Amino acid sequence: MSVTQSVKLVGRIRQAPKGLSRTAMRKYAVPAISLGFILLVILAVALADVLAPYGPLEQDLTRSLEPPSAAHWLGTDSVGRDILSRLLYGGRPALLGVALALIVFLIIGTALGVIAGYLGGWADRVVGVVVDLFMALPNIILILAVLAVFSQSQAAAMITFGILASANLIRIVRAAVISFRDELYVSAAVVSGLSDGRIMSRHILPGVVGPVLVQASILSGIALSVQTGLGFLGVADRPPHPSWGGMIGEASQALSSSGYFLLFSGGIVALMTFAFGFLGDGLRDLASDTRKQAAAGLFRRAKKSHRDVVLPETAGDELLTVVDYSVGFRVGDAMVETVRHLDWGVSPGEIVGLVGESGSGKSVTAVSLLGLLPANGEVTSGGAWLEGRLITGLAEKDYQQVRGSGIALVSQEPMVALDPSFTIGSQLEEVVRVHSQGKQGRAEAHARAVELLNRVRLRDVESLMRKLPHELSGGMIQRVVIAMALAGNPKLLIADEPTTALDVTVQAEILDLLRDLRDSTGMAIVIVTHDLGVVADVCDRVLIMSQGEIVERGDLDTIFYSPAEDYTRQLISSTPSLLERS
Amino acid sequence: MMWNLILRRVAMSILLLLLVSAVTFALQAFIPGDAARAMLGPEATDEQYQALRAEMNLDQPVVQRYLSYLAGAVQGDFGTSLYTGREVLALILQRLPVSLSLMLGSLVIAVAAGVLFGVWSAARGGAVSKFVDALSLVGFSLPNFWLALVLAATFAVAIPIFPATGYSPLSDGVGYWAYFLVLPWFALSIHGISVIAKVTRDAMMSVLNMDYIRTLRAAGIGRGSVIWKHGLRNAGIGISTQVGLMAASAMAGTVFVESVFAMPGLGLMAVDSIHTHDAMVTQGVVLTFAIVVVLINLIVDLLYSVINPRVRVS
Questions:
Q1: Do A418 and A481 form a contact (C-beta atoms < 8 A)?
Q2: What backbone torsions phi and psi does residue A82 show, to the nearest 5 degrees?
Q3: What confidence score (pLDDT) does residue A302 get?
Q4: What DSSP element (H or E) covers A390?
Q5: Most CB atoms within 10 A, among A87, A191, A577, B6?
Q6: Are B146 and A487 an interchain contact pair (Cβ–Cβ within 8 Å)?
């Protein structure tokens, strides 16, 4: 998967959450309030005989369509019946209908889902076809067909709905069961000779309770919509007995004379469906770990950040200068700093190795220089300068002046480094055209793309350009990515683990290529790596990073022959390729 | 490979249509009080009843009746209405344009607005993201018939900007046609907008966090191209599947929206046929709805496999 998503959150937490944080409160409050409201309505409807001020059929034709008053809190309908009383009684068919659909939904959904997920094989395939069919059917239409036969039968309608809607639950339960099936304790149960039935009910069902509750709550909202909808159409109803849907239908007959009626009769349905929706969403949020979610807002409007950092005099003619540089990630309410107070620089034409084990913050440092942190990441202190120009905290469009032409990036995983939906040629030419500021036509862009691919020593370039990324090997893609990085004649190339995912022979070729490109273009290169062997091959200078800080720096001889830090010595001794070489 | 995919989709569609027709047919066939009884009413004598049964072939075995219904349906013969005596197919064709205008229009609106909101929310995050969350909860929860009624009460009755009921055929001018459809479209598309916005947002968020997006941005490709060209194209698979599912729910929604706005479409016809116990018409409409849904799904799937090279090869 993506590297940016799996940034390891090893670091210091700056703001520890105090007690139950605001987001956590909201997390529990929303489903709790929703559930409370639902239970309250259910209770009121169940106690309609006690609570309702009037009988459900009690009319007073002299008081038709009255607005709310002390005698009739929610007003009256067109034959003078009390709306509040009828809403209380009318909730019975609505809620019973929902309950019936819910029961059918739960039984069928859980049963078929567990069977498909646990047994697999042909059972899974048959259930799969059933699910596809259920999902594709317009359910209201089929319910109407059922009602054509079972005239005015709410039970038949809601059972049909429950069956059709169970497709979604079947899929979810099946997926959950499959993920649980491979867990250790289930295997242990299998080994100890428990029957399939016992394993399913004892060990697997408890694990799917969470997702089932979420789905049950969402379904209840939809079922209420369907039940009241059928009542509104008058196809599953027993007038003059009240039902919420039927009352909406009656209100629609009096649209021009009474807005209250429509507001109250539909309002209770809307509030209940909202409550079910909030409950489902809330339960889902409680079940999911927010730390695993990718944050939205990769292109969020950047906050105007005032940076009181200045380029130090000592920078001299450095190409890149990084001062007091920290990077943090927002996790819930806390800010976790994975890179802390770095000071370093790169001179023109130099190849610098940024070395450390995974989680040391080296990749985060590299991508942050280009403003390419994930949405929840930011530079929390200090800044970086390219040729004396501040490149930290820029707006998206200002970064575009830096990316590709100032600093270019080659990243770790060649197999996911190119857009799988576009050909090599199309992507490379797009990059070329961006850097020509629209001055190049298609033919010129194509010629330049060919030239770039030749420079990274790819053969048979024309046919290569018509291929999609998945048709290329990792080494070839890495060359294409390097060609793309060269398109804007960058002054600094950051290569983030450029050879890690490649075969040993291909690794050496790519490193040779990088060194030759430095020699021919004069651009500086920062190689981010965990492999000191790579460093020994191509770098002029080395920075050793550990847990977000630079622990040692120096030229190759110093680092390899007289390292000051234990950490550096450990790194050297754990690099077999180095030992072979010496 | 491509043909394989098409064949699989078509086979699945045919299976679905067979199933729908079988279910609706079986429902009518196995229940006491058949069509002949329904046509004659309770006062008819047993002789009259038996005679009509024979005339309508109701005395033949169920499977044979189903097969002959199917054979007729394939040739465009959906039988005759028990209530009006007219050809069911003629009734359906007369009303199909109304329902298609309503449904396809709202589907187009749902996709356009849903994708826009979803992309916007994935790219911007923060307040926009919260707005889309709220919108999708409202759109998902609000019963569309009530929403339609509130719209009618507000924008046709209280502030009479749009007509409260009716339909104007396309042949009488696009402007008039759209004028009558504005409120129904709105009522029917809210649900689709909310669902598609959410699916788009989730799909875009995972695509925008992919390495290749970072490669393109690092190489200097601008935000517009990253979002609308590379992001949306890759997020498209999930979205297009959802559009297929939306077709089914939009078709179902026509039943309610047509009832509220008194539009002479298939949805209203289905409801009326239930009130008049006109089984042949109900059956015909159900089958027509299923055919429309299946066709839209087929078109969406094929269109997407043409656009996206990965679907073709894998």
A1: yes
A2: -75, 120
A3: 61
A4: strand A389-390
A5: A87
A6: no
**If you search the block for the tokens 């109250």, which residue do you land on?**
A264
- Secondary element (H or E) of residue B234: helix B232-260
B 229-288 residues inside an 8 A Cβ radius of A? 230, 233-234, 244-245, 248-249, 251-253, 255-256, 259-260, 270-271, 273-275, 277, 279, 282-283, 285-286
Tokens encoding A119: 């047994």
Beta carbon pairs, A and B, within 8 Å: 261
Phi, psi dihedral angles at A564 (to 5 degrees): -85, -30
Contacts of A300 in chain B (CB under 8 A): 123-126
Residues of chain B with CATH 1.10.3720.10: 91-313
What chain B residue is nearest to A147 in terms of C-alpha separation? B274
Torsion of Cα atoms, B27 then A154 then B183 then B164, to 10°? 100
How far does A365 lie from chain B, in Å, by closest CA?
14
Q: Name every chain A residue with its beta carbon within 8 A of the beta carbon of B271.
A: 144, 233, 235
Q: Which residue matches tokens 């489902």?
A: A280
Q: Does domain B91-313 have CATH number 1.10.3720.10?
A: yes
Q: What is the DSSP string of A151-166?
A: TT-HHHHHHHHHHHHH
Tell me the mean pLDDT in the region B94-100: 94
- For A103, A399, B207, B255, the CA distances from A229, given in Å and listed in that order, are 20, 53, 38, 10
- Confidence band for A1, pLDDT divided at 50, 70 and 90: very low
Rounded to whole angstroms, how far apart are CA atoms A76 and A84?
8
The pLDDT value recorded for residue B124 is 85
Provide the edge-to-edge strand list for the sheet that holds A334-346.
A12-13, A334-346, A320-331, A377-386, A389-390
How much of chain A, in percent, has pLDDT values that exceed 70?
89
| Alpha-carbon span A147 to A78, nearest angstrom | 28
Q: What CA–CA distance (Å, rounded) separates B214 from B218?
A: 6
What does each C-alpha distance from A178 to A70, A118, A119, A132, A169 come to in angstroms? 59, 7, 9, 19, 14
Q: What is the DSSP string of A542-577?
A: EEEEETTEEEEEEEHHHHHHS--SHHHHHHHHT-HH
Name the residue type at position B73.
Answer: A
Average pLDDT over chain B reads 85
Q: Which pTM value belongs to this model?
A: 0.83
CB contact under 8 A, B218 and A138: no
